Each structure stands twice: as structure tokens, then as C-alpha cells.
């Protein structure tokens, strides 16, 4: 069955997967969604015998139906190779009564690598399939991880440029250093004087700015997106949830067709949306636990049916989740409306104008498998500390939110369903915060790399290559801009005079 992609905001003619990947955002400002969610084509027992690369092909071919087998396999081979420091790509670790799906074994030690390692290859292939001769300019707003992972994926890929915007003082020091030391003649990084939501909103406005798009087109460029709104990122994320289930099956931890729960620390909603798609494909999933930090806008949404961003923006120890506008939620809202683009557009316009919208009870029933939960800084740190003291296993502060919310849910409901927790970043990426949880006070007087050395001793694990690399890497990017100056900054980076 051919799967096409339609916008969440209009009845415009659907496009092929390659066109959706290339465009990123639909012309009307909506997000692309598949015209149908396919079902898994092979029994789970068969899929459980496959390598990550083989499984990726089996899942992704169902969505990217205009890619030939040769094209898709080539993209997968280039993406999931020695860049990952574990041959399993996404190993599953049983610990403390749960299963931690380690999604941080790629080049930038965060889960974004799982999709952003393959997106550049999908995009270059898509450009070729659509006879696109202009240079592709990737615009990306990041709350910390997307930026580095996207740049690492696109660095020196022919026919592409990438410009990343991040909130100055809104990411960890290691995250910032990873970005500002990024190699690649086609990469640019800009710190903006605002928060992630400011950066994301401005990037979306640039995509929809006819004058700006006409200007860059006249100079041989076109915009595209590496943010999680791009289906070229969403589809690869589905793979690792199927892979997690298959690992449980292969290890004899569950019986075939036995249900599992999946807990995902969530900011922009793309990662847990991929788990939802996996469930719709036939993966036996009972509950999807959407875990938020103190910016609990998604928790309130699932508990009350009201999305309301009108609240203080809090900076926490899990900065990649410090988000009040979860862009990918629009895809779930679209499904909840019965795939009504007018109603979805009205909700998004209400969000833009008033900062909130409310769903009906019948709409909420469309995603009843979701459970919203949140954890405070204290609950997060206490959970990380307890897991370490009980087992010696160290998790980062984002995974810690997932861990804390899962423990709350299990204690409240008594639900003993086997649970996979998406482990979204290496603890080495947030060493200062992690040490504050497992060894408070012991890092006093240490710099960032001294803290990493201490964490290496306490965790009993080897420092990731991504950290070793930035110890001596020179600073290559030092631009800072006001939010309102972001379009002008893009033109400057592209060498286009106004």
C-alpha cells in the first residue's frame, strides 16, 4: 500500500514521503501525517531475530513507500554504523524493575542521534527523487540536543547547509560546547536572547514567510527542517520502540503479544508520538506514560484536556524538556478531531492567539492510552539517587523524569506491566546535575571536565568519545542574536544581502 502524507491544517493534495521530508513543514503551516498508519507486516517473533538495521528497514519501508529498497537500505547503512558505540545501536538494560532503552550511543550521546543520523541521507535522496537543484538550508531550533545531533548528521553533506538556533543560557554547558565546536563548513550556530519556545516560533515563522522564502529561492536556496516536525525524523523513531519490544521477546522477558508500557520523558512530544504510532501499527502497548518536568503543560493536557501555555517558563535540570509549546502534539490533536483539518487549524490558531485550547471529552477518548505525569526537581534527583544506590546504574536528568513518573504511576496504580523507559541522554551530557543527585557536594571546585572525570569513577563506565572530542576542540561558532533578528542572521550566514 502506498502511504502519502497530508497536512493537519488543510485538504491540500497529499504528497509522497520524499516530498514531505524535503518540505519539512506543509505549505499551510500544518504538519505532515500519513494518510494511513500501516500495520507491521511480519510477526513479532520474526522481527525479534533481526538486527537493528534490518528491523529499521522492515518498519520504515511501510512509511517511505516511494523509496526503493536500494535507496532505503543505503540510507540505513550510512546512518547506523560505527558512529554508534554499541553494536545493538539501542541496547535495553534491565534495572530496578524496569527496562531502560538506551538511546544515547550515537555521535552526540542523546536520543536525537537515532533519527538525525539518517535524516540527512533521507533528505539528500528525497532531493534527488524530486529533482531539487537548489541547496537545502536546514533551519533548526533546539532546546539542547537536536542542534548538535542535526549538525553532526548534516556536517559537510553535499547540497546542504544547516543553521541552528539555541537559547543562550538555556542549555547545559556540555550541550553548548558540543554545538559551538561543531566542525563542518556548512554548519552555523546562533545563540538567541530568549528561550526555546521563542526560537521555535521564530523558525516556524521563517518557514512561512513568503518574502524571505522568495529571497533565498532567488539565491539558489530552499528551507527545510530537521526538527521533530519532519516526518523524516518521526518515522525512524518508531523503529526503536518496536526494537525494544523485540529485545524483550528475544530475551524471554515477555511472551509474544504480551503488553508492555512505555514511559517517555517528553518536551516537544515527537518521541512519545513515535511510540503511539508503533502501538497503532500493532505493537502490544498498554499505556504510554508521558513524563514532564516542572513545565507540566503536557501533564495538565492529558489530565484535563486543556492545553495552556500561559504559565511561567521554568529552567530545570532537564533543559531539553523546558518547553511550553509541544509542536508534535498537533498530530495527535488532528487524530483526535477525526482528522478534521479545519478544526485542527482552529485549535492551533487559538493557541497562537490566546495561548490555550480545550478538547472535548470525546476527542480525549481517542488517546485514552496516554497517562500524563510530572516530577519535581526533588523527585527527579531522589529517583536518580535511589536507582544508583540500589543498583549502581546512573541515568541522566531527563531519563530521571521518566524514571520518577514511572515509579509514581506504579505506586499509585499497582500496574505491574513490564515497562520500557526511554533513556534519552547519557549522564555524561549533564554531569553537574547528575552528580548533584548521586554525590551532592563532591564536585565542589571542579570544572565541567573534572565533573566528568568524577562521574566516570562513580558510574564505573568509560567516558564517551563525544565528550573526549570536545575537551580540546576549538570554538568555531560565536554568533549571538535577538529573536527578532533571526531572519536577518540567516541571510547573513547565507551571504545574501538585503
Short description:
The chain has 498 residues and is an alpha/beta fold. The chain contains 22 helices and 15 strands.
Supply Rg.
21 Å
The largest β sheet comes out as: 6 strands, mixed
Q: Give, in spatial order, the strands making up the sheet with the most strands.
A: 3-4-14-9-10-13
Continuous helix count: 22
Could you explain how this protein is built, in words?
The chain is an alpha/beta fold and about 500 residues long. The protein has a domain at about 90-110 and about 235-465: Rossmann fold. The protein has helices spanning about 15-25, 45, 50-60, 70-80, 110-115, 120-130, 145-155, 175-180, 195-205, 210-220, 230-250, 270-280, 295-305, 330-335, 340-355, 360-365, 375-390, 395-415, 430-440, 450-460, 465-470, 485-495; strands spanning about 5, 30-35, 90-95, 100, 135-140, 160-165, 185-190, 220-225, 260-265, 285-290, 305-310, 355-360, 370-375, 420-425, 480. Strands 3-4-14-9-10-13 form a six-stranded mixed sheet, sandwiched between helices. Strands 8-5-6-7-15 form a five-stranded parallel sheet, with helices on both faces. Strands 1-2 form a two-stranded antiparallel ribbon. Helix 12 (about 270-280) links the parallel strand 9 and strand 10. Helix 3 (about 50-60) packs across helix 11 (about 230-250). The radius of gyration is 21 Å and the shape is globular. The mean pLDDT is about 95.
